[in-house]
Amino acid sequence: MFKKKRRGLDEINSSSMADIAFLLLVFFLVTTTISMDKGINIVLPADGEQKEIPKSNITNILINESGKVLLDDNPTLVKDIKGIAERKMASNDKMIFSVQSHSKTKYNDYLKVLDQLKMAKASRISIANPDM
Length: 132
Prior knowledge:
Helix content: 25-40%
CATH topology of the domain at 56-127: Nucleotidyltransferase, domain 5
CATH architecture of the domain at 56-127: 2-Layer Sandwich
Structural class: alpha/beta
Number of strands: 5
Largest sheet: 5 strands, mixed
Mean pLDDT: 82
Distance between the termini: 97 Å
Number of helices: 3
Order of helices and strands: HEEEHEHE
Strand content: 15-25%
CATH class of the domain at 56-127: Alpha Beta
Low-confidence stretches: none
Radius of gyration: 30 Å
């Protein structure tokens, strides 16, 4: 009788897999666009530039670790900051808003306050040290 010759299992040739993976990697690196987040636009003063500012031109905004806001030592809701800021800027065009937060304040709470000032079109915002 004739013995049937067994053929080996067919395998996928993997010798060019590394080349294909490398080409795909290069393709995706070249075609991917990287979006640059704008973040918060802040114009920093020149180094050493210090000016004496009258206290009547400064509005202090304090944010504690639980997100509660004090605006000139008066408890205020975050959503009310825009209206208050607009009224203060209407009465004093040189108004500066000094925002100070506790070191454990959530970043989201801090951004909500800055967003309210931005919506009020406040252009003079001072970011104070987080030492409450």
